[in-house]
Amino acid sequence: MxxxxxxxxxxxxxxxxxxxxxxxxEKGYDVVTFTADIGQEEDFDAARVKAEKLGAKQVVIQDLRxxxxxxxxxxxxxxxxxxxxxxxxxxxxxxxxxxxxxxxVAKNEGIRYISxxxxxxxxxxxxxxxxxxxxxxxxxxxxxxxxPEFYTRFKGRSDLFEYAKENGIPLPITLKAPWSIDANxxxxxxxxxxxxxxxxxxxxxxxxxTTDPEKAxxxxxxxxxxxxxxxxxxxxxxxxxxxxSDALGLYLYLNELGGRHGIGxxxxxxxxxxxxxxxxxxxxxxxxxxREAHLDIENLTMDRELRKIKHQxxxxxxxxxxxxxxxxxxxxxxxQCIEKSQExxxxxxxxxxxxxxxxxxxxxxxxxxxxxxxxxxxxxxEYNPEDAAGFITITALRSKSPSTYLLQERRDNTFPRENGxxxxxxxxxxxxxxxxxxxxxxxxxxxxxxxxxxxxxxSIIKIxxxxxxxxxxxxxxxxxxxxxxxxxxxxTKKGININ
Length: 499
Hints:
It is built from 19 helices and 18 strands. By secondary structure, it is α+β, with helices and mostly antiparallel strands. It starts with 5 loop residues before the first strand and ends with a strand.
């Protein structure tokens, strides 16, 4: 097997990557397949046999579940990682894990080419390739779904079926669901097909990992979850005493319990990195439970100002992970910051799972920053209530400043955008502006009916106050002030600004 024309293919055993395997062979490549076990329920022995029958020169299957859990999911938990406030990044966290393992194989085997089956419209091509380039700068990526000779030949699934028949590729025994599925230890995601119309309700048969919350058990599941440095190290079922302390076993157990109680279902529209919006449905039971618990223990043990900064880093981290930047310098830096922030996040959270929800019922920590005596309404302790007066006075300085007051005046007295001079003059009358000023406005602009918007600054507010107080002004000063008002009128229709 010549290493010069050998390609390492990310291989799932499905129709798409099986067709890509044969297509690469057509192009003169020797193909080594790489299959990662990251917690998806697949028959890996069947995938091996299938790849060998299709002529793969070598078949590599690796169990990455533990490192995925300990080195990627755990970081996401510490970070409270969430994209656009809803997506827990199950697929995005898996891609750098798979890419790292593939790069290691490619380097060890002296393979220069890596190929994958990600589509040309999705995020995965970006995540996968950015990780590969970061870890293996000399690598050459073959992405068939971006090559015209491939995507013009295979316009749809029916073309793949025909190609499979012609090349002796075993066809799926069962019909493929009318949507795409990506599963791993952290979640199952569904998109495309009948889900592309965002108003369509997902069929009840879609969900593989969780029970319908309405059909979940009527009795809640009570748990205690222990954290050390922000990482879950133990979970205990308070009903039957079951305990899990192994990272992988703990996560699998929470997936089981959370799935039973309908935890972690979301149906969202998200913004892909490429710029388009897509509809995705996700099931993330263990991730949802652990995020809620981690947020709670973090609030108990983390300083307020540190938490504020850490939250900002978490938002940035989540965007970086979503965009495939796990191995970038900026993401590496933020991961180190997040790890540092978790040094004191030790403690136990008590919660219950019930019909799709995680309810936190209590928490405790040897490093708790909660001072019961200080916060109590019944005990004064070292806190002097009189000190609050000075605190409020100093804090109020900003609110009492003239500029803040003036800004509020401007907001309260903003003229609406209206059509035509008659409406504008009526608005001026309602605002108490001198009738002579209004007449002057009409005289000047009657020949130019258009849409106007009057914006007022501090001098106009002063004029208005003077008018209401019936102050007198010399005629020239009145005209000058009126002109000041006119200079703030925007003639939007003709694009003329009166300055």
